Amino acid sequence: MTSYPYFSINNQSIFLKIYVKTRSPVEKIVVEEDKVVIFVKKPPTKGKANKEIISFLAKKLNCSSKDIEIVSGLKSQIKTIKIENKSKEEIINFLGQYKEE
Fold it and tell me: Tell me: the pLDDT tens digits for 1-31?
């Protein structure tokens, strides 16, 4: 059985622990064995990278940006994201698309 140390479920919400790399030439997601890395173009100033993370994930997950919230790590590269209105299976399938082999 595959384990997912980077996400947990509490009530109807999924919590995803991510590591953020800013000032990347491309936006992308890389799922490693023990972490999810999100690359964004914006710098980590005045919340620009945080806004980009939310809009990027909303686009990729095909959901509203209102369904995604940074609940910890606003000023850190390590963040916890809360995702609403998605099932565990949807998140597992989503992350599977970006898993490194």
Answer: 456 788 888 888 999 999 999 999 999 999 9
Q: Enumerate long-range contacts of 28-34, CB under 8 Å, 24 or more apart.
A: 28/98, 29/60, 29/98, 30/98, 30/100, 31/6, 31/95, 31/96, 31/98, 31/99, 31/100, 32/100, 33/100, 34/5, 34/6
Query: What's the CATH fold of domain 7-96?
Result: Conserved Hypothetical Protein Mth637; Chain: A; (3.30.1200)
Domain limits of the chain?
7-96
User: Mean of the per-residue pLDDT values for the chain?
Assistant: 91
